[in-house]
Amino acid sequence: MSASRDWHIWLLVLVTLFSAMLLIRPGIKYGVDIAGGSRITLRLEASHVTIKIEDLSKLDNLVRTLEDNLLSTVKVVAYNENVKQITLEVGRAVTEDMISGIIDNLGQLVGLEENKVSDETRDEIMHILQARVDPYGTIGAQFKPLGMNFILFEISGIEPERAKELLGRQGMLEAFVDNTLVLRGGDILRVGLIRIELEAGGYKYHVPFEISEDGARRFAQASVGKAGHCLAIYLDRPDDAVLIFNRQLLGELEAFTYDENLRVFIHRTGGFPVMVPAAAVTPGSLEVEVLEFLQKQRESAIRAIFLGEEKDFSPVIVDKIRELFSIVESIPRPADQIADEWVRRACGLESWPQIQADIAGKAVTNVEITGVRSSRDDAERDARDLQILLSQRLPVKISFEGETAIEPRLGAEIKGEAMRAAVGAIVGIWAMLYIRYRRLRIAVAIVGTMLCEVIITLGLASAIRWTIGLPEIGGLIAVIGSGVDHQIVITDEILRGVAPQAKKVSIRGRIGRAFSVIFAAAATTIAAMVCLASLGFGVMRGFALVTIIGVLSAVLVTRPAYARLISASLAKELSEG
């Protein structure tokens, strides 16, 4: 059969043309090293607390008491048996007064180190964040430790604002019945599949999750006789902060009212208080009652959060708030966001489903977060984010310290240099092949097939929006090198078959013998790369996945086509000779 009628060759041509079209649209996405991107600095808000404890049997009770009161993870990082001192890592910023008031007679506070995180916790956080923004290693996200409690995040394949949505949230879940905490993040056993439904007013999403027996028991105790009440579900509630907002905001609110005595927002339809203290201020100066309230909040809160930018408040108020609180932050209001949504987001309030009569007072193990968005894409995005956050909770709080643009490390001229290097490599490979075989057709066929492999691999990367950086380029080079080796194996076997002194083995048989070697080598390579992709982190995963895709496409498409092409070419050469 002639080469022009072989379906293997036509398949190679069609796949190559289709891949070439993908390179034009949507095109290749380049990584930070080549195209530059954004750098986000993250601060880990953890503390190391050293406590003297005479009786180690009280340790579990001590850790549980701290977790229940601080609503944060607490773990043991060191123990000095000689002086009976234990060091605990608390996943949030705390003060000595807060710790002393909580541990009471369980131990004696010896020391507090703020902004300190263990290496194990920092590595765990980088792994979780990597899984959030780049679970398959396809967009080139890079995380690097910076000092004791900072992480550098570099990205070019995702918008910085989108990355902040996933990176800046701890994933700490809480659920309240009235003022009673019934569920915490540690009660989540499994997060289910999201569900999107069309209803009047938009698209409603459901994020189901399964809770522990202890959580179900607390829900049963708190919901007795509470049919019709709301289960207020929070995610990343600012439990260590007090909100500061201008009183004029109250005139814009429809879903919330404000209780001047309790100084909290009240949900109108649900009737439940929002579990975040909030102080309404008037322009000019702080009222005496508000100042007394804020001073009292310092016992449990270390942060003050302005709803709006600081310039929206008088300098007198801003200066006084900075005197009272060591950490002062702002939550600007997006231009297209209504006041109710702004307040809800600031408080971390996610959902408030009503407790049905058939489950009130019962140990329910299945709960879900719901929400409504105007478009299906927004609903699916928010539901997916919630699913990720609930599944991949962070052990400590994090905050953003800054964002800067980063220039390409390799310079803007890298593409031109890479093109010149590629042309030089192709010419060099062609020359070596021609010297080896002394046949122009063989050298052209091998180089042509090699170029097809490159186009197919890059086309697949473009189709799935894979970011190409230095690791991926390394994988592509590995694919090219193994491809040339395999084609030389096929060529040598076929040439032995057409030699005058060759044993009587058919060309098909010799191709089969060559492919037995090729398949074994490809299987070994793929197995090694699968292990590297499974165990690897960041750059190693990108290298492994590109190599796997390149080897698979080569074995399934380009190798069979090359075997048919070179067989037909040599047969024609012999017939002409």
Structure, explained:
The protein is of the alpha+beta class and 577 residues long. The chain has three domains: 3-30 and 411-576, Multidrug efflux transporter AcrB transmembrane domain (Multidrug efflux transporter AcrB transmembrane fold, Up-down Bundle); 37-168, ACT-like. Chain A, domain 2 (Alpha-Beta Plaits); 173-392, no CATH class. It has helices at 7-24, 32-35, 59-70, 96-103, 119-133, 160-167, 213-222, 288-297, 315-324, 339-347, 376-391, 414-437, 440-463, 470-498, 507-535, 539-576, and strands spanning 29-30, 37-45, 47-52, 74-80, 85-90, 108-114, 142-146, 150-155, 173-177, 180-184, 188-191, 195-199, 202-211, 231-235, 241-246, 256-259, 264-267, 278-281, 303-307, 327-331, 349-351, 366-373, 397-406, 467-468. The strands form seven sheets. Strands 7-8-2-23 form a four-stranded antiparallel β-sheet, covered by helices on one side. A four-stranded antiparallel β-sheet has the order 4-5-3-6, with helices on one face. A four-stranded antiparallel β-sheet has the order 10-9-14-21. The chain is elongated and about 100 Å long. The protein starts with 6 loop residues before the first helix and ends with a helix. The mean pLDDT is 85.
In summary, what is this structure?
Helices cover 46% and strands 23% of the residues. It is α+β, with helices and mostly antiparallel strands and 577 residues long.
